[in-house]
Amino acid sequence: MDEDDRDTILIDIATSEMTLGQVMAVIEEYRRNSAYNGYEIFLDGDRHAIVARRKE
Hints:
Strand order of the largest sheet: 1-3-2
Distance between the termini: 11 Å
Structural class: alpha+beta
Strand content: 25-35%
Shape: flat
Radius of gyration: 11 Å
Order of helices and strands: HEHEE
Largest sheet: 3 strands, antiparallel
């Protein structure tokens, strides 16, 4: 399975006015959210987005 098929873009930061600090805080919020327990939440620099990737 292609990595792109496993990924969900949560926030497109390229079109957002969020600061880096805000982006990092949002990533931590997603990581603490029980709805995303089965996901890795990270900042994808190539996509300029906060991404959720299902853990295998």
